[in-house]
Amino acid sequence: MENKKIIAMMLTLSMLAAAFAGCLGGDDEPEDVMGCMDATANNYNADATSDDGSCTYDPTWTLTPAAGVSAAWVASDWDPIIPNLNAGDMCDAILSAMTKTDERDQVVDFTRGYYTSSQGVIGASGAAVISDVSELNAAGTTIALASGTTSDIYANENLAAATIQAYTDWPSVILAVNNGDADYALGDAPVLALEGALMTTFSDETFGLAIREDSDELEDALNVAITALVDGGQYDAIFGAWFEGTVVLTDDRTADTATAYPTPTEGSTLTGVLESGSLEFCIDPFYPPFENLDADGNEEGFDIDVGDAIAEELAAHYMGVANPDFVAPVSTTTKIGLLNPLTGPIAVYAPPFTVAAQMAIDDLNAAAASVGVDMTFELVEADSGCSGDVASGAAQSLVDAGVVGVAGAACSGASMAANAVLNAAGVVQVSYASTNPGLSDADAYPGFWRVVPSDAIQGPAMNDMVNAAGASNPALLHMTNDYGSGLADAFADAWGGADFLCTQIGYEDTQTDFAAEVQAIADAGCDSIVMVSYSTDGAAILETAAVLGVSLPTFGADGIADAAFLEDFSVPAIANGVMATKPRAGSSAGDFVDDCSMDETCAGGIYTAETYDAVMMIGQAAMMENGANMASHLNMLGVDYNGASGAHTFLDNGDVAGAGYDICGFDALSSTDIYFTCMEWWSAIDGIQATPFAGMTVSIGFLNPMTGPIAVYAPGFGVAANVALGMMNIAGWNSGLQFEMVMVDSGCNGDVAAAGAQTLLDAGVVGVVGAACSGATMAANAVLGAAGIPMISYASTNPGLSNATAYPNFFRVVPSDAIQGPALADVVTADSGSDVALLYMTNDYGSGLADSFAAAWEGAGNTLCASIGYEDTTTDFTSQVQSVMDNSCGSVMLISYAADGAAIVEELAAQSFSGQIFGGDGIAEEGLCASMADPSLCDGIVATKPAAPTPNERSMAFAAICGSIPDCADGIYTAEAFDAMIIMGYSVFAQLSSPGATLSQMIGAVGQGFVGASGVHTFAANGDVGGSGYCVGTFSMVNGAPSYDCTRSWTLSGGVS
Fold this sequence. Notes:
21% strand
């Protein structure tokens, strides 16, 4: 059994050995290895000999586009708009009127240009007209602009002298200009043009779409899409929907600009746009006409239409969807043209024309809506340049814009040239200011109407104006253009013919140097000048005459008859006294006159009511038959048409008869006191007559010492007050406010002044100027203060009046004698006066000043030789002078008024007094000597009075006027009387706009740094002023007449000098 097991084991081992031998050697086939044999697979097996189908792969990317692409608009403030783009989660590109600049190109990429623009300037109401942006580089000029814009960059680099106000949004820029916080606004010209008349343009630039620097595929796609829009004509259609005129687009493409659409790749910005179906643009949505929100809050504008068209181009290429052509929305707007002299010799009048025309457009739209007419009116403005060449081109641009009618032009030559274009196109023309008689020829100027009368009528009006002013030998100086020649001929004919003129000189309306013409007039011995000019040349003529010293009464016509004429002067006061005619408005219908008066720009304009009427008549004619048969409808309207400028009836030739002519004048007391008023008017039947005043008249009282010891000075006080009254009434005329002065006698006496104050109360005065004498003022205040009536004294100096509790509602424009006393003491010391006798009135003025002098004199360690008081009614001074002589006094300090002072001086001479006489302001004028039998007794007297300030325009102008009137020239405190009256009047003006304030409060406010004829006045809480020191004057005899001259001065800090 055991042997069998052993044999079996051996057989098994033999078989195993044989098997091993077969594996290790011989010619048998190798074993097959299974696995993934694709090298691109994720699980590739390099050892596999047989592919077992187990290969795995990453998913393959393919573009999955949306059905189409639409533009989406994401609002962003302007300053962070580029950071918002680059952050990557707000938008894909910026399409927001962004100028391509090197600085911006450092942080974003730009597409090819899609709009060519320029920067522009508009002005606030009343801003000076400019012709070049460099004129803004001046201190005192404030410019509003949007921060971070090319305007901001330009201003900071080129307009450093001006004040730059940068706002974070565009509406704030326009608000700043509209409310007067800024004088001008800078920005893109097309945007500014929607807000006002462009004064000038500068700095051409190109807009582009901004994209992130890693968005190369999107940049290429956008470039190809923009080029497709331009080449295919869609761009022109979009441009025409938003802008007037010919398309101008700078082609700034380079060799690197894509010409074929790119293939989108995984993860790119372009891929994101195509797969989402939304091309997101960042915009600043308050920048019309590029981007804005409509009434429903939807985006609209040129950029919006461009963005939508780009999105459609992308969708057409990448998705194969239809790409519709841009169709401009059907406009229901009816356009009315305005030929406005935005440049040229009367550009200064253009802003008011614009305002008036736009007011008419607003009223037309309101009227259409109120009667259910489906029409919206729009004003299209074009520059006439006051030139035939400019106007004809402007007229063509208005025809191209599709206007139904044109208001304008202003200048006759411009109207004539424009008519040839407009009539040929069947567009009616209604001028608001062209007056050349030749325009009455309907055969030469068909399709022309005007709402101003022909200068064939204005010539006789000018003739009567010149005659009434007393001129008899005038020079006629006129432009040789259509307006100038026509009116010059009309004036010459009315005057009796050219042979009756001193001389007649014509000049081209482009002329700027008038020295030869002015000198020829002077050499001819003419007694006046009649100008037929526009604003710019008229101002140049007057300034030339001033430089050459040719001072002649000057007259003009409607070409200068407006307050804006003053803006063309370097020294506006040169226009003082110029008179001019302009067509008179008839009885006005509607609210325009009131609305215009509330608008600063409109209120200062010329022919504004006529401009309004011209636009209104065109619009109303258009409403009759939806713009058809305009000529017929204008003639139908023009029968007793009640307009803002009067009632108009068109004659067969389109003329109107007019309502006569206003006779206006320029009155200038200084550069701040210049007014243009029309207080007379002319009609062909009645000639010159006063213009009725329909406003409010305010009474102001004036306490004048017409009797008593200083009655000699009363005429001067009265003249000064009347000069002020005249200026106040000139200033108030256009505002519907006039003043009347109620003058009563103060008698330089308390009882008389109190009675006078009651008379003034009974007369209904709102304030009182005066009195002169301190005692009179104190007594009057007891009456007036109790009634709440303020007083402004022009000569009361008693220190007691500084007590505001005792003397309420009291102000004065002269310093207290608490200051004059020390001045007198220093003068006596400086002149080595000794043994001084103080001789003074015992009234309030005299006692106050005497006490002040005595305190200063004795406070310096001196003693008085004598102190002698007397009643201000005293007429015999024998005993007072005897006391001076008995005490052997060497000097006399005389505190008196003129009459008693003169008597004292005569008595001193009679008693052989040989010492020095000093005095205060009561005697510091030649009036002291007027009653003396021997005026030479004044010789050598030294007296003080409040000093004249550093000269200013108002003080020099008043001095010239006062010096020409003997009563004023020989007076005392005349400048102070003028100032007190003017401050009272200005305070009444101020109170009208502050109805909750009292007149005393307004006097206190107006009297802060008030530049007056007698100095700069600042009222303290008690109504006092500090003054400007004191004049130290000496009487002398000049050519046999006494003269008082200020040869020295005194100040609190410097003493006598």
